[in-house]
Amino acid sequence: MAYMSNRSFDSNHTLLEDYSGTKAREVKLESFSIPFNSILFERADQRKESLEAPAFFTDLNLDQVIDAITARKKEYHLNPFFYTPLSDAETIYYRHEVMRDLEQTTLMAHIKAFAEKMILVRRYLALVEKLDSNYHKKGWYLEAALVYCEAILELEHHLNLADIKSRGFLAFRDYLTNYIQSYRFQSLLAESREVKASLSSVKYCVIIQNGRFKVRRYEEETNYSVEVEKIFEKFKQGAAKDYRLQLKQGSGINHIEAQILEFVARLYPEQFAALDKFYEQQSGFVDETILVFDREIQFYIAYLEFIADFKSRGLSFCYPRVSRSKQKLYSYEAFDIALARTLLYSQNPVVCNDFFLEEPERIIVVSGPNQGGKTTFARMFGQLNYLANLGCPVPGKEAQLYLFDQIFTHFEREEDIHNLHGKLQDDLVRIRNIIKQATPDSILILNEIFASTTLEDAVFLSKEIMARIMELDLICVWVTFIDELSSLSEKTISMVSTVIPENPAIRTFKIVRQPADGLAYALSIAKKHRLTYEQIKERIRS
Fold first, then answer.
1. How does pLDDT run across 436-468, given as a tens digit for each residue?
2. What is the pLDDT of residues 361-395, one digit of tens each?
3. 513, 353 Cβ separation under 8 angstroms
4. Residues 91 and 46 sit within 8 Å (Cβ to Cβ)
5. What is the pLDDT of residue 359?
6. What contacts 464, CB < 8 A, 6 or more positions away?
7. Where are the domains of the chain?
8. What is the helix (H) or strand (E) element at residue 496, kind and residue range?
9. Is the pTM for the entire model greater than 0.85?
10. Helix 374-390 and helix 89-102: axis angle, to 10°?
11. What fold, for 314-541?
């Protein structure tokens, strides 16, 4: 008994498993009249990526933030973009414009749809490199080209309909329009569709008999499946269990299927010769500029998706002004984004804080009771300025922040037994290295240094370091237990972590601008336990 199967040839037989993104082969296109360099950088000479996180990331908990932002976009390798702050305000505002365009729900959906298709393109091209069967490989290559063309055409159509205003998107839209009109793309589009249509017309029969098979052209044989179903229809009694076996689909083919494919190619030499020609002539069809755009646009998508959860819970983000000017720096209702992320799904509120510096102020000295939010405030200050220098919206309702060249941090670390230094010596070595490297455009964040020495020594050393900081004219936040640092100069201001007056054991985590007074907290504790001078006198009288 023989088994005969009627089939149509399709270059895409099955679905694919996921994979880690593979870069498509590059091709040089004819130059276009509309300049487009990058959706992240307005000029080509600005493009750079840092492969390592800045040294201060751990102190500011920015490592947690960036890892969370990029977690679902690993195939794009976005971390280097987040490790590289910008050095000019114009590029920061260039990114603001793109980010604002992407806040349009419709445009965001179309960009994501384009990205999904480009993921398929990369998967198909990666599969081509792994397959052994000649025509199976070329069939997937054709499918990749078809998906690519569809993605490009759809994206250009939707960008033309969208209300885009950013320089980045406008330049990219023009580039895309010119690219579509180019001979390279038009030939790719026409040839891929033509080859696909030709292959779709291929029909063949597989005859299986006595452990062997034959392949021949389909000659309009009758399909008896319909007749068989019609005959047995009268025996049907209600819903019946489906006993048909679902064959597992995969991206590859076995040696028998590969041989069948070779036989089909011999039966239809013209159609498969066209596939051969397409594979050779359209080598490396993915445009490098579009490939770069597909990766870079994920920087914006990843960040906007990350902050969406915060916004849904009533927390604000704003587009900050940035400048090298130190005349006025401020932020209203800002918060530590790393801490806020841990509190999003808890009952604990996210506490927001303000700060401002006006000429000639440079240094915020933060004091107050322990566990009152001082370190969190210092981290928040660093996070805000860093995210602003990436061109991202920052936590808060309004902000004007500093365009720095470097951020330096000095947070307490465990004593390293290998360097044979004591804790005090280690603090001094670290702060000396920071002062040597810092410039007037740097930001410095110090957190509880010299806690291991006597108060007298701590005051002396702190004043010496403060003098160096003021000499360099650095923007600085200094968390300390030494109140007098806040009034050393017109360049210093005092901010204090507060408690609830009726119960000073409860912190508000609000950091307010007011004179430092170490006695204030002690007085609150004394009041709580009825140990003030007046309370003791009253108790004696009674």
1. 999 999 999 999 888 778 888 888 999 999 999
2. 999 999 988 888 999 999 999 999 999 999 999 99
3. no
4. yes
5. 96
6. none
7. 1-11+20-42+50-223+251-312, 314-541
8. strand 492-500
9. no
10. 90
11. Rossmann fold (3.40.50)
